[in-house]
Design a protein that fits this description.
mainly alpha
Length: about 100
């Protein structure tokens, strides 16, 4: 019976570790997207947020889901890229545990 319990605990641990790893990977990909697609334009035009901490996490979520930016900037991101960007922005948003300037760590 103990072997079954250890096996079950191992499976749960692996699932949780896998979820954490995929979220961490998404945040890394989001950071790359922020640097490549967002910061360069925002810095040169001196418009809009230059940092993830400019908005709270829910504000970033609403903004990306609205597709307003795609209409203005004419940049189209895949759903996967939007999710990765959102993971990154929420991780460093104003209401996160570690708000900071996006792209700098």
């Amino acid at each position: 019976m103990k072997l079954y319990s250890k096996g079950k605990a191992l499976i749960i641990f692996m699932v949780v570790a896998g979820l954490f790893a995929s979220t961490a990977f998404a945040a890394v990909r989001g950071k790359e997207l922020w640097r490549a697609q967002c910061v360069s334009c925002h810095e040169t035009k001196n418009q809009g947020p230059k940092a993830a901490s400019f908005y709270a996490g829910i504000q970033w979520e609403r903004f990306l889901k609205s597709n307003r930016h795609e209409k203005i900037a004419r940049i189209t991101l895949s759903e996967e890229d939007k999710s990765a960007l959102l993971e990154y922005l929420k991780a460093f948003a104003a209401d996160s545990d570690s708000p900071e300037i996006a792209g700098i760590r």
